[in-house]
Amino acid sequence: MNKDLEKIIFDEKQIDNIISNVSSKINNDYKDKEPLFIGLLKGAIPFMTDLVKKINLKCFVDYIKVSSYNGSESTGNININGHIPDVKDKDIIIIDDILDTGLTLLNLKTLFENNGAKSIKIAILLDKKDGRKYNIEADYIGSICPNEFIVGYGLDYNDKYRNLPYIAILKREVYCK
Length: 177
Description:
The chain has 4 helices and 9 strands. The strands form 2 sheets. The protein has a 6-stranded mixed sheet, with helices on both faces. Helix 1 (12-29) packs across helix 2. With 177 residues, it is of the alpha/beta class. The chain is 24% helix and 34% strand.
C-alpha cells in the first residue's frame, strides 16, 4: 500500500459492485428516455467512464470542468472553466465522484434549471453526509463514505492519487503539513 495511505476503504471489486447497482437503477428509471450524462471534471472521469459502459440506453455524454477546492479545503466558491453543456429540454444526470459540502452540485443544479433542463438527477459514487453544508441530496448514491479525506479512483489531493484503482483514506500528515 502506498506510504501516504492509511487504509483502503473500497477495493476494485467493491467499486465495480457499486457502479453495477447505480447503473441498474438508472437503466430502469430512464428506459424510455435518452439522458445526457454530465460528468464533473476531473474527479468523475473514472466513475463516469465505468458507469456509462453499464448503461443500456441511448444516451449522450458531456463534461463540465468545475472546481471548489484548494488542496484539502473547500473555497466556498465554484469556478466553471470553459464549456457549459447545452441542457435545454434535456433529461440531465449529473455525475460526480463525491457529494461532500454540496456547494458544487447545488450550484450546477441551479444553473441547469435556469438553462431549461427538462429534468435533473444527480448520481454520485460516494456520499460524505457528515461534510454536508448545503441542502442537496443525490438521487443515485453508490455508497456512504466516512468523514475522512479520501483519495483514489478519481478523488485527489492536489491532483495526486486520482489514478489509484481503489479508494483509500489519506494519512493526515500528508494534507496537514
